[in-house]
Write a structure and sequence with these properties.
2 domains; Rossmann fold; globular; 14 helices; seven-stranded mixed beta sheet; five-stranded parallel beta sheet; about 40% helix; 14 strands; single chain; alpha/beta
Length: about 400
Amino acid sequence: MRFPSISRRAALRGAAATSLLAAPSILRAQPASVKLGILQPVTGALAQDGELGRLGAQLAIEAINAAGGIKSLGGAKIEMVFADARSNPEAATQEVERLQAEGVAAIVGGFASPICLAASQAAARYNLPYIVDVGVADSIVDRGLANTFRFAPGFGMFTSVAISNLAKLNEAAGKPIKTVVLVHEDGLFGAGLAKLMNTELPKIGLQVLETISHPTPARDMANVALRIRALNPDLVIPSSYYNEFVLLARTMQQQRIRPKGIYAVLNGAASNYRFVKEFPEAAANVMDCNHWYHPTNPLALAVKKQVEAAGKVMAYNVPLNYSCVGLAADAIEHAASVDRAKIITALGASTFAGHIMPYNATKFVGGQNQGAAPVNLQVQGSDIKVIFPAGFADAKPVFPVPA
């Protein structure tokens, strides 16, 4: 399923057709809407990410409905049934129960790994299809739940790609990086990533001087910054949510802590235009291995314009959820049914290519999309550019960072 643009003239024709269909002389039964659960944390510590995820889902639903809805179901429109995960797994589980009672055909979202773990497990009790948007913990798909499909890559792949690309960057620059400090949030995502990094970084000749964890939310990063200053690493690798990395980056800038690079992995701020716009000096030249939209895809660029026109900031949550809703709609289209078992079968056989991510077509193995892969990004000027892989890149890397 793709998301064709709808002209104003076409929209007027559609409105006229709708009024004719409503006339008593030719009254036709309209197909029942397809209820799609959208689960995001729009209150609590993760509210910013949740709102962006909800926005991406909403834009996709509007585009699909404007393009004729689910054609195999007679043009049935998608109806969003929204659920607030409230930034914690317990609330997410409660919301899955409510979505089940509402009769949704599938659920999309979750964002954080603990939320996705709990929510997908709860959905499995009802054979309710669950499409994970972000949650990177590989345990989400390693449990073998038949109802759970992760569209984006997990942190095993992120670590592999991030380290491979870091090795290429360091080699091309004459190997200026020899020492690293890891900074991570102390939850499932950050701790798991740090463990993998500690194993893999020495394999490319980099010494991990220290691994520093912090809570989410965190109100102060002064002690973390002071420790980084004392260790004086060539490179800092942070894996944190938005607010915590903004605090760290700004504190490092204020204290004039200037490593040869900040190479983030799955960072909540380094791939967010809000950070670039509000704190350009702290954001300058920060690199990240993360989710991102396809930078030369016309539909992706059109969605970015929609987001900005609405006064919002583009971040990876938007294109991921836009694409995940498209995947759900495509599966329902192929299933030609809202029967959950049929939708799960359609997802398992999916070759969905109508997304706006720098991925190949979907191919699920054990619930993981094999067509998905992260990209490397860098803040350059007032923009965020893709620097790896070459097939999707729209800029060359600046590395090491000028003093």
